[in-house]
Amino acid sequence: MFSVREAFGICNGQFREWPSNLRVYMAFLFGMAVSSVPVLNYLDFAKALQEPMNAVEPFIILQTLREQMTILLLGLLLLLSDAPFINQRSTYSIIRVSRKSWAVGMILYVVAAAFLYYLVMLVFSIGLVSARAYFGNFWSDAIYSLANMPSVNSSIEFGIYFPYIMIVKSLSPLQAVFHTVCLASIYGAILALVVFTVSMRNNRIYGLIAALVVHAAGYIMVSEAYINIPKASLLANTLLGFHTFSSGATSGITLTFSYILLGVVAILLAALAILLSRKLDCSVSLGEKK
Q: To 10 degrees, the CA torsion angle through 23, 24, 25, 27?
């Protein structure tokens, strides 16, 4: 029988393993390393202008660049690459609780881990620029200058670009960083749920491949779209720069649409994972079968 208490216990048990898990440290260190490059590039840009910056601007810029957000996403996939999180210890948990309680607990863990990962990256980016940053709900002159500068020029000179002036004009920094973290976390959780769901019936490597294929498909759809951004692309709905904040924009992707689409996909994957957990073969998930 399903138990909310058991589900949260399973989720908590996964987090309690983090301090002794080398892969967790590798994932967060990887994320910090790859995110530091665009963050420091923006810091150099602000220094060249002799202007301070809002502390959350670097992370917002980072997550609007699909190349950089893809690399950062790999850190999250590394963090959750052991899905469906079955080892010698967890097999005893599966025996003690119902399969549904176990599956719901693991789903809660995946979602919570995704949000925590991006929150840590946000805090890390703030720490890198804190000496020249301020905390407030208004944009800096530096980001206005970057948004109005031709992307080719800023890319060549500073290694960064931000051609999304509509974000600055339509949202406050706090609104922008809130949506950036939420959209990235939900999208990351979706890919992690793909890994989790596929790995329950196959070797773990197939789950990772499936998640990378889903992301690659969205990346290609976005890259091939010159004017009209495909609304069916999960990646396009994750990148804040592809959203419309006023009538008449070409993409037609609104924040409401993105949250609904990503939410529905996440719920469907979660439901599928719960369904498949009823016939979970631990030997397959542990890699004992070929």
A: 80
CA distance 113 to 115: 6
- Contact (Cβ atoms closer than 8 angstroms) between residue 33 and residue 71: no
CA–CA gap between residue 131 and residue 183 (Å, rounded): 28
- What's the rounded Cα separation, in Å, for the pair 126 and 115? 17
Helices (H), the chain: 4-16, 22-49, 57-64, 66-79, 88-96, 99-129, 141-148, 151-158, 165-170, 173-199, 204-224, 255-277, 282-285
161: left (phi over 0), alpha (psi -120 to 50) or beta: beta
Q: According to the 3-state scheme, what is the secondary structure of 200-245?
A: CCCCHHHHHHHHHHHHHHHHHHHHHCCCCCCCCCCCCCCCHHHCCC
Which pLDDT band holds residue 278 (cuts at 50, 70, 90)? Answer: confident
Nearest in space to 93 (alpha carbons), one of 195, 14, 23, 21: 14
pLDDT over 90, % of the chain: 58
> Each residue of 166-180: pLDDT tens digit?
999 999 999 999 999
pLDDT of residue 86: 75
DSSP annotation of 136: S
CB atoms within 10 A of CB 185: 22
For residue 60, what pLDDT is reported?
A: 96
